[in-house]
Amino acid sequence: MNRREFVKSLPALGTCQSLTMASALFASQPRSAVNTVSGPVSLEKLGTTLMHEHVLVDFIGAEKVSRERYNVEEVYRVALPFLRKIHALGCRSLVDCTPAYLGRDPELLRRLSAASGLHILTNTGYYGAANDKYIPKHAFVETSEQLATRWIGEFQDGIDGSGIKPGIIKIGVDKGLLSEMDAKLVRAAALTHLKTGLTIASHTEEGTSALDELDVLNKEAVAASAFIWVHAHLESRTEKQMKAARRGAWIEYDGVGEKSLQQHVELVKMMINAGLLHRTLISQDAGWYHVGEPGGGEYRGYETLFTLFVPALKKSGVTEQQIRQLLIENPRKALQTQIRRQSS
């Protein structure tokens, strides 16, 4: 039932009261589409999804980063074969997690999406890890509310005049208790989520900061289910991972590679045994055309998850249905554009 049909079905109340009831109902319902660089796509069409990958990155720093520092056509030629390869292997969606001031290029991603057949998501937000090297000057003086206004603007109007809208909020924090800047970014992400329903994915390398982030979100009445702990596999204290998962957060093991296969298989099995597979996400953190290196340096392909990791999961006893949940159902739920409030 759409909004108009719902209003017609309401009892003979005053028009304003009817519309208020309708707005409240539809605001609380999950939105069935997610923003990709090519426009909204229904959740059902996302299919097998890589939750954390990169096409392009530039580590020069926020004050020097620029699209003029790389040849777009070269990046396109380098990246496209890798994207087409995973499409042939059954991948249908990829979340590009390169944030603003670190090489985010939504228009390049839109071209690659069209040529590869993949649904590609980009992001809004700022990356506060690496001691704030990738934070723009204005963020040091602006409030969380002002930063959120910028990010909400990208969701409503598109990024840098491209019309391309973000599918997630991507932030990053340093290790340990949150710094003043990191706490500001997390709060800005919370405020943005409450206006947009975008999920918050945060580069977080250890458990102290992850749990601190969840506390900030809780203060803003944002549910833990709106939060993805990116790089959770870097935290050796697995009890921290499970604690965050039991609070409702998404635990993302996104370092899958040939050398880390067994570690990631064991982490997935741990979450299955703990009854927490429904809070688990998986990816590779691969790609990485490095701006400033000849030819972009060594570009790591995205196929390891399909050619090595899934077979390793099956060999370890993980079922087809559990793999489907990990690669299709969980990403669909995590990426759902829905405002998730902390219940009182």
Describe this structure in words.
The chain has 344 residues and is α/β, with parallel strands linked by helices. It has one domain (32-335): Alpha-Beta Barrel (TIM Barrel), CATH 3.20.20.140. 43% of the residues lie in helices and 15% in strands. The chain contains 12 helices and 12 strands. It has helices spanning 3-9, 15-28, 72-88, 106-116, 137-141, 144-157, 180-196, 207-219, 238-246, 261-273, 304-315, 320-335; strands spanning 33-36, 39-42, 49-57, 93-96, 119-121, 123-124, 168-172, 199-203, 227-230, 250-253, 280-282, 287-290. A 6-stranded parallel sheet has the order 6-7-8-9-10-11. The protein has a 4-stranded parallel sheet with strand order 5-4-3-12. Helix 8 links the parallel strand 8 (199-203) and strand 9.
User: What is the CATH C level class, in words?
Assistant: Alpha Beta
Class derived from helix and strand content:
alpha/beta
Q: Tell me the CATH architecture.
A: Alpha-Beta Barrel
Distance between the termini: 29 Å
Instruction: Please give the count of helices.
Output: 12
Provide the fold topology.
Layout (H helix, E strand, L loop, with lengths): L2 H7 L5 H14 L4 E4 L2 E4 L6 E9 L14 H17 L4 E4 L9 H11 L2 E3 L1 E2 L12 H5 L2 H14 L10 E5 L7 H17 L2 E5 L3 H13 L7 E4 L7 H9 L3 E4 L7 H13 L6 E3 L4 E4 L13 H12 L4 H16 L9
Parallel strand pairs: 3-4, 3-12, 4-5, 6-7, 7-8, 8-9, 9-10, 10-11
Antiparallel strand pairs: 1-2
Helix pairs in contact: 3-4, 6-7, 8-9, 10-11
